[in-house]
Design a protein that fits this description.
The protein is of the alpha/beta class. The protein folds into 2 domains: about 140 residues, Aspartate Aminotransferase, domain 1 (Alpha-Beta Complex); about 260 residues, 3-Layer(aba) Sandwich (Aspartate Aminotransferase, domain 2), CATH 3.40.640. The protein is built from 15 helices and 17 strands. α1 packs antiparallel against α15, α4 crosses α12 and α13 packs parallel to α15. Bound molecules: pyridoxal-5'-phosphate (PLP). Pyridoxal-5'-phosphate binds next to α5 and α6.
Length: about 425
């Protein structure tokens, strides 16, 4: 077999890449006119070029229509976007809303989907869940008068392992049984890049009568999701990572249609009230059926508008083609690292079904390697205590960029 680590092979793969024309739709950052290697789409996705005209259009609407713009353009602005999310997260009509930021939405969802009793009061999370999720969950335990020492169950990998085994997750859920109120995991873990078996986790959680939800920050627009069919109760994600909609872009929520007539606890606001009576100033809350009933305030149009530019690209590509191209691109990075830099430990699962774009690597002298990469115009990130995360995105990264990255790593090794 030809040596994969060569510009010839990388260039051939770039020519054959069915998504090669998509990169042109993004602004690619530069540093003082020198090109960079951008592998941080798992942190902030690149800007679609169409964002500028979309923002100008909204600015013109505001200038031209003033308050009339609400009814001419903005009241249903989110609806057009939501339709395009259905295939990305595997949802049905009525199950998605765009609003707030991710952690805020997790709070709003926990108000509804964590309803502890004396018997059923535990929450199950990953030990290394993203800190913001841990703060949120702890605050809900305290809000209800429960102590994390007895009510918070943290899933830990087996000793000498970095990732969780599905069977261990399921066994933990089963063993805590009817004491569990809510299971809430990341769909893809931000640190290891492991994609969890959300279908099996949901099934096991339902069997013990718990609510189950996912933080999809690293999963939405990255891996296959079938939230409706899996019977997930709730989920939330941000749109600024794989979904390329800009810093602080409004987050998405999913609430299964099983809960569309919800009359349990929730924090309410006028944007969750039925349109018919929203402007009649009635003090009684009359919620919209489904996920929209959880929205509180009117939509931040200027931060929501870029989502359209991103979804237009996803529509053109199709989530299944994205995933196919992503598995091949990330597989190329993995093969080069394994062949050329065997001392690097990739902690992300090997099976493509159990990960998305990101590979997390433990590299000897890791912090210095990260500094060296930054000095050489590579944008990737370091996560304490010991991981460099590289996330090739098939919408804008190339095989040649991966070749150049591995070449840089090899040069560091020779120093
Ligand atoms: C897994 C995960 N959860 C939550 C957050 C917090 O997001 P936000 O600042 O939008 O609330 C992040 C941010 O990167 C994240 O990666």
């Amino acid at each position: 077999m030809k040596n994969l680590f060569s510009t010839e092979v990388a260039s051939k793969l770039d020519i054959e890449n069915p998504l090669k024309s998509i990169r042109e739709k993004f602004n690619y950052p530069e540093d003082n006119n020198s090109s960079i290697l951008y592998f941080s789409g798992n942190s902030l996705g690149l800007q679609p070029k169409a964002v500028e005209s979309i923002l100008i259009e909204q600015s013109r609407i505001w200038g031209k229509y003033g308050a009339k713009g609400y009814f001419s353009h903005w009241v249903n602005f989110h609806k057009h976007l939501i339709e395009n999310f259905l295939p990305i997260v595997g949802a049905e009509d009525g199950e998605i809303m765009l609003m707030n930021a991710l952690t805020v939405n997790l709070h709003l969802l926990l108000i509804s989907f964590y309803q502890p009793t004396k018997i059923r009061h535990k929450i199950i999370i990953e030990e290394d869940a993203f800190p913001s999720d841990q703060y949120a969950i702890n605050s809900h335990l305290h809000l209800h008068g429960f102590n994390p020492t007895t009510s918070l169950i943290k899933l830990k990998p087996q000793s000498n392992e970095k990732c969780l085994k599905t069977i261990d997750i399921i066994n933990t859920i089963k063993s805590h049984g009817e004491s569990v109120a809510t299971v809430m995991l990341g769909g893809v873990n931000y640190y290891t890049g492991q994609k969890y078996d959300m279908k099996e986790i949901t099934k096991a959680s339902k069997e013990i009568g718990a609510y189950v939800g996912f933080d999809l920050a690293h999963a939405a627009g990255n891996v296959e999701l079938n939230l409706h069919n899996w019977n997930v109760d709730f989920a939330a994600w941000c749109n600024y990572k794989y979904l390329n909609s800009g810093p602080g872009a409004p987050s998405g929520i999913f609430i299964h249609n099983n809960h569309s007539d919800w009359n349990g606890p929730r924090l309410a606001g006028w944007w969750g009230n039925n349109m018919k009576s929203r402007f009649s100033m009635d003090p009684n809350f009359d919620p919209i059926k489904g996920a929209e009933g959880w929205s509180i305030s009117n939509s931040p149009i200027f931060s929501m508008a870029p989502i359209k530019a991103s979804l237009d690209i996803y529509n053109q590509v199709g989530i299944n083609n994205f995933i196919k191209a992503s598995q091949k691109l990330t597989g190329y990075l993995e093969s080069l690292i394994n062949a050329e830099m065997p001392k690097i430990e990739i902690i992300t699962p090997k099976r493509k079904e159990n990960r998305g774009c990101q590979l997390s690597m433990i590299i000897k002298d890791g912090r210095n390697v990260q500094n060296y990469l930054e000095l050489n115009n590579v944008v990737c990130d370091w996560r304490e205590p010991d991981v460099i995360r590289i996330a090739p995105n098939p919408l804008y990264n190339t095989y040649n960029e991966i070749y150049q990255l591995v070449k840089l790593l090899k040069n560091y090794d020779k120093k």
